Request: fold
Amino acid sequence: MLASTAVVNASSTATWVVRQVVDDIGLLSVEAGPDRGRSFELDKAVVRIGSGDQADVRLTDRAVSRLHCELTIDGATLRLRDLGSKNGTWVGKCRIYEADVAAGTQVRVGETTLVLGVEKRPTRKAVWQGGDHYGSLFGASPAMHRLYLMLERLAASREPVLVRGESGTGKELVARALHERGPRPDGPFVIVDGGALSRTLAEAELFGHARGAFTGAATARAGALERAHGGTLFIDEIGELPLELQPTLLRFLEEGTVQRLGESARKHVEVRVVAATHRPLERMMNEGTFREDLYHRLAVVELRVPPLRDRLADVPLIARAILAELAPNDAELAATVERALAERARHRWSGNVRELRNLVRRIVALGEADGLPIVASPDAPGDTPEPPRVDLPMAEAKQRWIEIFERRYLERLLAETGGNVSEAARRSDVDRGHLGKLVARYGLKR
Reply:
């Protein structure tokens, strides 16, 4: 059925080809509303629906938010996610925040009714054939092969890239792969953690400062953008960047110049910016906490790293790669890792690859996996709190349930982040200081 028609990359060993394939094409038709009768063929894996200029499917319905909802097409699977819309995304009488829906489902946004569909069609498509890893990324699933293909095609470019994905999926590895396979692999690779930047020092960290520019600036210092000259700047958690600094970063992306705090001169720097986030930027744009123009400048190309629960078949491959790095050629440890993974066959890996790495590291350190949680799927029995105590006043019984929830939540969160409180704070969207106090209150180990 598949016939190779052209090799489109120029390397001596072809990593991707264009083939005639039968592929799943997303379809969307408007059944009711101001745009009734219109239909759309969805040629992207992720499609944003809304009334704004940045929407892939743009509707004229004034009750539809600028970025209203998002449709992800993965084979025959349709995943619908609301983007913080004002009037909601509805299927029947149910308001949808995120759900997998079947072809033929009617979705209501504002005053508009949409019908979603998928149709198999022959099409010419680029297909990855370069193996089951790319740089330090591992995976044989179709989603990862699509990611490798995009990385290979983007590597030679210097355009900004926005990497989306949950915490622990490997967004930094994506940035490093772009750097290492790009035109300047020997240049610097500089990392800035947007979640760790204080509002007062964020501009100085990115753009540098002159001596005496502020209290404590005893010497002049180059910012991250200058230090990354001739290479790549990776801004992790770009969604945490203070709103007041976003116009300054936008100006750099448009002009390629930086100005240190306390100086008037501007300096030209050659840097490729790769930004990453797990935050819902579309919702933040709707709320006015992330600039729409900065988003468009960063997301010249947008890559999505799939969560591990959506590619469970990749888990053994990734675990073997981690073990080969930590303890190569150790057959006994390899067997222990295989047993641990078999025990966790239904595990959801909410900590993604970071959680899997922690499991392998513990096995390497201790020779066994005892003490790490074995968590089944969310619908598995035995993970509910104790029944509420009706022998207590309602307020006291409620507080007891809250404490049980907080303890269990923190125990699992710390287990999946390897005790890293900063990462736990980012994932839980809780202030780091407050999270530290909760950890101390319940006597949990970091």
Notes: The chain is about 30% helix and 25% strand. The chain has a mean pLDDT of 86.
